[in-house]
Amino acid sequence: MAAAAASADMFDEIVMAEERFRGEGYQEGYAEGSHLGAVEGRRYGSLHGAKIGSEIGSYLGFALTWQCLLQKCRDDKNSKKIRALDSLIGMIQKFPYEDPTYDKLQEDLEKIRGKFKQVCSMLNIQSDFRIGTERSSLTF
Prior knowledge:
Elements: H1 2-71, H2 76-94, H3 105-122, E1 128-131, E2 136-139
Antiparallel strand pairs: 1-2
Helix pairs in contact: 1-2, 2-3
């Protein structure tokens, strides 16, 4: 009877080996996939965040420069441009840089882009913002 029980246990181990190996393989694959997914997500997030930061920084530098230039010759025509620049600067300063989970990030970014285009139109400047892999630039 002991030999029959040992024989049955051996066959159970053989039959169950496939199930056991599948379970172990799944666990190993899941752990590896989770790790690689986190690494890839972090890399993508850093790259995308850097592009947005570069774009917003360019808009802010542009707006501050023009605000300074227009302050020197204040008149009714320039005061409207200055108000638009002040609005753009305010939007940029309120942009939540530190919160990547902000649910209206894309919406606010589109509003800033729209305001930037409006300011460029008021200043009679052709705006062409491009983001490259190595650098971003504003061209006029």
